[in-house]
Amino acid sequence: MFFFNDLKVRSGRPVRWAISSLLVVAGIAVAADGPLAPRSPGPATFIDLVDHPAPEANWDRFHALEDHLAGAFHMACGEGACLPRRFLWPMQLRCSVRVADATVAACVWVIAGSDLQVRAAGSIDPDVVVWRCVLPLGDAVAVDAFHAALEVDDPLAVRLPGAAESLRQAVARCLAKQGAAS
User: How far apart are CA 163 and CA 105, in angstroms?
Assistant: First the structure.
């Protein structure tokens, strides 16, 4: 077996002493906030919409909007908009806000669908699919304008400022694609 004590440097001191000295020097560099010290990240470029303008400051308004969109989604599905799929559920909406100008940069709405099939042998086969639907946004939609545009009776009919299509059209296009099996 090989040990540090078995090695000698030119001065006759063991290598263990040399390594210990290097570790002490490295420790001093880190303690002095030298180049080895981890840097704290700078200010965030993007934040979650619920945290705009401060952590959880937009919590109630955002979740009310999320519930309002989910209600509109359920209403549209009840009117046949989700056919041939019948068991779809909006799971979660998240939007990012560009901090520098307080604009909504991107939103993703996760929608899940399931179907359970009972087999002749008695087994039940679940078919669970998840879609990650990107909401259509124009450039530089201010946070307040985003909320105001969707606080209407039918938010799915809304075409956000600068967007090429309504939320209903974007979600329908998303759901027409094959979702990810879960």
Answer: 12
pLDDT digits (tens, 9 = 90+) for 53-74: 999 999 999 999 999 999 999 9
Helix (H) or strand (E) holding 127: strand 124-134
Domain boundary assignment for the chain: 1-40, 46-181
pTM of the model: 0.73
End-to-end CA distance of the chain: 52
Task: Report the relative pairing of strands 103-118 and 46-48 from DSSP bridges.
Answer: unpaired
Contacts (Cβ under 8 Å, ≥6 apart) of 159:
136, 165, 166, 167
What token pair was written down for 109?
A: 């709405």
Contact (CB, 8 A) for 129 and 113: yes
Q: Is the pLDDT of residue 51 over 80?
A: yes
